[in-house]
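name: query_chain
kind: protein
chains: 1
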Amino acid sequence: MDILLVEDDPSVAASVIDGLENASMIVTHVSNGKDAISAAATTNPDLILLDLGLPDMDGQDVCRIIRETSSIPIIVLSARSEEIDRVLALEFGADDYMVKPFGMRELVARIRAVGRRSNQAESTATTSVQVIGPLSIDRRTQRVRVNGEDVYLTPKEFDLLAHLATDPGAVYRRNDIMSEVWDTNWYGTTKTVDAHVAALRKKLGNQDWIEAVRGVGFRLGITDS
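structure:
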């Protein structure tokens, strides 16, 4: 597995590189946001480990820029432990978030879990395109369009949308969504579902696409736009 590590602290980078190489992963290391954006586009890694406190730009901006053109899974590694930082990172396109300091065994497990979910989404995708009003979902290519225009989603955002689209109009409970989309190895809370729903609504261009059912969960609606 090819990993792009974006970390400006040499000691942290060295420790992570050693741990990942011991887990038979190949690591490319950059120490600033500009190089991270370039490396993501040119080396096409399997996954990105992204620090937020970079010397030239905020890691959340790096995440947002990469996500505009790429669906490479991103795990944020940051000393920022506030809930707002987690939520913003997820809204900008991160697939997971770990607070420093962290254990290498957990990091490796998170990497493999995110990679496994991404691969499963690709391998189980069907060749048919599901059309719901102006929304089309191609599970084979993981392409989403609204009114013929491409909508760029993170792997987790796509998984969430595809799951809700399995039965449009049906209500899906938060815990069931966590189990099916994030699987039982997820260490976070159901608030991450809300963050991904908010990001999906914004990208789809209409809040009505995903309806919140108070005290239960969410369902995919059908709109004209």
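note: The chain has eight helices and twelve strands.
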